[in-house]
Write a structure and sequence with these properties.
Layout: E1 2-3, E2 6-9, H1 16-33, E3 37-45, E4 48-55, E5 63-65, E6 68-70, H2 77-85
Parallel strand pairs: 2-3
Antiparallel strand pairs: 1-2, 3-4, 5-6
Protein name: Anaerobic ribonucleoside-triphosphate reductase
Pfam family, one: NRDD
InterPro entries: NrdD (IPR012833)
Length: 99
């Protein structure tokens, strides 16, 4: 289940409103630390709910386009177009010759 971009694993015995409340509480805790919550696992142990929470991966993909090294969200329109025009090495482009 996905709640506010957080992957949640929970037992079916827990009502959805209760699950949402646990996730909201965990998100508030993580927000105070400046980190992003990525995954929550809820387990029942008797009458107790055990909560495990995990940080969203802080790894960002960096790309190099014609000497410009950055994350895609910082590319200008021309660099984003250049990225969209790229093909994997195993594909060939159709070449058009202008005479």
């Amino acid at each position: 289940m996905l709640i506010r971009n957080v992957l949640v694993e929970n037992p079916e015995a827990l009502p959805e409103k209760e699950v949402q409340a646990y996730v909201a509480e965990e998100m508030a805790i993580w927000q105070k630390t400046g980190k992003t919550l990525g995954r929550v696992i809820l387990c029942l142990e008797g009458n107790d709910v055990v909560i495990q929470s995990f940080e969203q991966s802080p790894i960002k993909r960096t790309r190099r386009i014609t000497g410009y090294l950055s994350t895609v969200d910082k590319f200008n329109d021309a660099k984003q177009r250049e990225l969209a025009d790229r093909l994997p090495h195993n594909q060939e482009r159709e070449t058009v010759l202008l005479v």
